[in-house]
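Pilot study result, target chain (174 residues):
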Amino acid sequence: MMEYWAWEPEFLRRFSKHYKTGEPIPENKLYALIDTRWDELGTDKLGQVFLGLFDMTIHNTADGNYKVDELYNRMQNDIVLSNFGDAKVFKVATREHLMSAYAGTYYAYLWAETISADMFMSRFKKDGIDNPKTGMDFRREILCPGGSREAMVSLKRFLGRKPNSEAFINMLTP
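Predicted structure:
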């Protein structure tokens, strides 16, 4: 979630200065930099959806009777909407976490992004990115308890409600 601050104009102005003169970054360059956040956003999220679905597919096939490389290529081409060719490279081998403790849970990356967007937009953006009360609420309800209580309890206490995907969906359509 911390990356959200890096895209806020008021935060960027604090340290975006010319390295020699100390002049602040010109407004047009500041907003051009912020706009780069959305470059390749769709491709990135489709890639995450693909990896999550591929992960669930390979860990939920009853008999395990499939060719992993063919399944990977087919799903990647179908979901990411690009034809990556039929290279004779075992691309799934570069995704070692799919065969480790993450087994079947890769989708959690997108879920974490969804929750982060909700927390940032619903509290920090709404209350002000430097609001001390919001920061202390985050510390008290999210950081301090850590894994000592159910995540949903912490989220409800911080947000004042159950988390939802509205902020994440809005982020996808800037």
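One observation from the pilot: The chain is about 55% helix and 0% strand. A full batch analysis is planned for the follow-on phase.
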